Amino acid sequence: MQGINQTTFMKYLLPLLILVFFACSNEQAAEETPQPVEVISKTLEKQSGDCTDPTPESKCAEVKFSYPAIDDDKHPLKEPVEMWAYSFMASLLDPTAPAEEIPDDQSLQHLIDDFFSMHKELVEEFPEAPAWYTVESSDTVLLNDGKVLSLAMS
User: Fold this and answer.
1) Rounded to a whole number, what is the distance in angstroms from the first to the last CA of the chain?
2) Residue 61 and residue 115 in one domain
3) What is the pLDDT of residues 43-98, one digit of tens each?
4) Is the pTM of this model over 0.85?
5) Do 28 and 45 share a domain, yes or no?
6) In terms of Cα–Cα distance, which of 26, 30, 38 is closest to 146?
7) In whole angstroms, what is the distance from residue 93 CA to residue 32 CA?
8) DSSP code, position 36
9) How far is residue 90's CA from residue 110's CA, in Å, rounded to a whole number?
10) How large is the greatest C-alpha to C-alpha distance in the chain, in angstroms?
């Protein structure tokens, strides 16, 4: 090396190059570490009829839903997770509902009211028949590593 002796190069430039290399590689590693999504479990419970005594003679209709939701209102997965959960709960209340109709809070409440109305009509039509009806769901986070979010409802 002409003009720069090797001692100066080794003393100043080589440590600087090593420092720049590690600084850039650490920044990339920090950017590549995705954070898991904040998933919470919400519940929706409603009852209609005589639900105080759980006997076969009781005339009770219950809805007990536990479903996943994204806690961050600005997260891009909030709406898709909510639509998926509402669709699942709607399919439990009305299996004949078209799958392309995505329910919201209001339409889900309407389906619950229809379920209770159907139960009431059945109790009036067959007063001696057992009529304890329950629609229930639970939710589970299967994988949430920041890259993949996998949820289950049953």
Assistant:
1) 72
2) yes
3) 999 999 888 877 767 889 999 999 999 999 999 999 999 999 999 999 999 888 77
4) no
5) no
6) 38
7) 42
8) P
9) 10
10) 106
